[in-house]
Design brief:
- The protein has helices at residues 3-7, 18-32, 39-46, 60-84, 90-102, 109-119, 123-146, 151-170, 177-192, 198-207, 212-223.
- It starts with a helix and ends with a helix.
- The chain is mainly alpha-helical.
- Helix content is 71%, strand content 0%.
- It has two domains: 14-57, Arc Repressor Mutant, subunit A; 67-210.
- It is elongated.
- Residues 15-75 form the HTH tetR-type domain.
Length: 224
């Protein structure tokens, strides 16, 4: 066997990694649904033996549970970080949170959508989703309270922010980045009662690598 041929094959006894199995399961889940998350097809995708799976997971249920743990850690962890991040005003705090929904490195909307679909098939998953929603809402509510909003008002505002964003995901709203970015200041004012300052919007755009001047120019060119 040539060196090139040997490089194409896994080393003898190689079992992959827990992360590799989990990533393959997530990809199958997102592309084809829950029924696609099965050990033998995943093993074929990874070019590993079926028995390799059992070095990392007890069974398929353990893999599915790991998918949920990964979803909670990534998507909900980003909420906590955003809502506790430094902000000079509540408007900037809300912008910090909105960044999460626009940055796939922080929050995976496809995964959130898929898990919510899964919850309609499983009472235990629905219970887990409900608990995650409550945790996220509590985190947003605490942010509003930090800026002096009374408990009841903070709760309503937290729900307005969160349910609007989850609605975007659940309805799979299709709109251009330019249009969505143009609506952000009005959303912020609606959510918290004050307009974001130009400097706050500039920091928001910078975090998302969005240049309103370039986007505006592209839109004009497209319409000419």
């Amino acid at each position: 066997m040539s060196e090139a041929q040997s490089d194409e094959l896994p080393a003898k006894g190689w079992r992959g990694s827990r992360e590799g199995w989990l990533d393959a399961a997530k990809a199958a889940f997102l592309q084809h649904g829950l029924d696609a998350v099965k050990i033998q097809p995943l093993a074929g995708e990874l070019k590993l033996s079926r028995t390799s799976f059992y070095w990392f997971f007890k069974d398929r249920e353990a893999l599915l549970d790991a998918l949920l743990v990964d979803w909670e850690a990534k998507n909900t962890g980003a909420f906590v970080d955003a809502c506790t991040a430094y902000a000079e005003t509540i408007a900037e705090g809300v912008l910090n949170l909105i960044v999460v929904f626009h940055d796939p490195d922080l929050f995976d909307p496809r995964l959130d959508f898929a898990v919510r679909g899964w919850a309609h098939q499983s009472a235990s998953v629905m219970q887990r989703v409900n608990l995650v929603d409550e945790r996220r809402l509590a985190t947003i509510r605490a942010m509003f309270q930090r800026f002096g909003f009374p408990s009841n008002e903070a709760d309503v505002k937290a729900r307005a922010v969160y349910l609007t964003q989850i609605g975007y995901i659940s309805m799979q709203v299709q709109e251009s980045t330019t249009i969505r970015m143009a609506r952000i200041p009005a959303y912020v004012e609606t959510f918290c009662g004050i307009d974001p300052t130009p400097s706050e919007m500039a920091r928001f755009h910078a975090r998302l690598r969005f240049d309103p001047m370039i986007q505006s120019g592209d839109s004009k060119t497209a319409n000419e």
